[in-house]
Amino acid sequence: MSLLSVRDLTVKFAMRDQTVTALNGISFDLAKGERLGIVGESGAGKSITGFSLMNLLSRPGYIDSGKIEFEGEDVVKMSDKRLRDLRGNRMAMIFQDPMVTLNPVLTIGQQMIETLMAHRKLSREEARQIAIVKLREVYIPSPEERLEQYPHELSGGMRQRIIIAIALLLDPQLIIADEPTTALDVTIQADIMELLLELCQSNQVGLILITHDLGVVSQMTERTLVMYAGRIIEQGRTREIINDPQHPYTQGLINALPQQTVPGQRLKQIPGNMPGLASIPTGCAFHPRCKYATDLCRSQIPEVVQYGDLKVACHEVQRLQADEDRQEVRA
Amino acid sequence: MFAYLAKRVIQAIAVMFVISLIAFAIQGNLGDPLRELVGQSVSEEVRQQLRDELGLNDSFVTQYLRFAGNALQGDLGTSYFFKEPALDVILKKLPATLELVFGATLIIIGFSVPLGVYTAIKPDTIISRIIMGLSIVGISIPVFLTAILMIFVFSVEYGWLPSYGRGDTVHVWGYWETNFATADGWTHIILPSFALASIMLPLFVRLIRAEMMEVLQSEYVKYAKAKGIKPWRIYFVHALKNTLLPVITVGGVQIGTMVAYTILTETVFQWPGMGFMFLEAVNRVDTPLIVAYLIVVGFIFVVTNTVVDLIYGLVNPTVNIARMGA
User: Fold this and answer.
1) In the listed set A169, A189, A220, which residue is the last one of a domain according to the structure?
2) Distance in angstroms (rounded) separating the CA atoms of residues B269 and A209
3) What predicted TM-score, i.e. pTM, was given to this entire model?
4) Residue numbers of the domain that contains A131
């Protein structure tokens, strides 16, 4: 049985003059201990997916329909009390920017201990001991002293380690990491990712890694979702998605990587921008930017089809593949 | 710590210098002191002689230096009316005013924090809307009108509370008389305190509400929710502490302003404090008393602001007083 099963999740935002759809019928599964990447450009709905899983959307966003079954229980229908019990305990989250995630007026110790005491019957001293153990696990030197410090006394990398330690405090089944290294120095990014991978593997924790960095996804995850304008347009094993993407958007993302370009050449970027939520194109939302677009693409939303090991939402995927095969034969 | 303190003290001295300069400049423009001293029956020659003796013909700088020198030794001149040192007259009235300000401060703190927090957490409820509406009314009505209305309702119509004076006061250390030791003293201070608080209270409710709403949108509050922390702890531990930091700074300035507002409140309630005394001094053109009042109020202002800055440094962990100003 899967740990997490999302079915037809639709999230809307009630703006002043209209209601826009931020997530449109998202479905995916996650097995216990599995690591899943969610990629896409800014505005694709990656972070909203992450927050929805914890039912933590703040106004004006709300879950319109769909199911999020976590350990057999629907998160969408949970009472506030059940949700509090879930958050931080069975499902933990790592936020994007460690500089603003920790409360500036509370010590590291206070913020760790309160999390433990919110979920378990522990004395303050017992909670403190667990906090020290977890800080050691994320390689924080002299953890006893760190507990007395305030966030501003620590560097960004150190703070993100502490946030990872807080995520691990209660041995959750799933960690959702929303661009955990975007706000950090490049040199520290690799360290943090390595640490996260190591801890997830050794503790058998499931991971949903939200990122726009395909390199990170290929190192960290087993499966990947590619999102565009609030829909999953391609999903499958990470290796296949990176090596043999089927959707023109995913192909565009991979081609845009600097590694795919000879130095000195222009990067092969996808023309145009992600559409705003209020102006999503008809048919396949990607069609204005897609060089293979046909009239069908402009009028009809593509169904998700199984193609090899991948699930792809594209009308043209079979024709594209056939073209590719022909070219290979010719070569 | 020492460097920071020294810096603050130097700033305070500079501010006091300017205040004293302004107060002294006023002194020279509030009519002829001799008229107040000797009346009209004295001949012009004697007047000139007295002017020389009093140093009134000296240059402005000489006069100011003499004034400042005396002031530093605690001599702010002699009240024409009371025939006593002006500072003594003010110090006798000071406890009444400070107790009134203290009472109003208690009311403001006691009401603004819960009301501000409530209206921030539940902005759409009818109660919140009523509170916000009333706060606009409170800010808009001048203190003297609020005071008169309160007297009309609670003293005249219902007769629950006395309308003027301090009632029974009890002597504690030296000349300090307190309202807080007898039941009669308490009943007398309630109406004036509420009247004095009536402008600041809505201001603080709105300030705390605005700050709190902003803090509730912050990442760390969202993160606290993601950790499964209970709402009351998020509101009162995570959010309130961050909310109060800017409020403390504004609060310090407002306490100083309240000392000034006491002029109106004390006059309406015949409260025997400095504000009431100041108005009488203006009516009597008691120049030394007016000048002394300005300097004492300025001094209170400077001291409260300095203390508030120090408190802010203690409450906010990101301000390191030990390192500041170094």
Assistant:
1) A169
2) 67
3) 0.81
4) 103-169
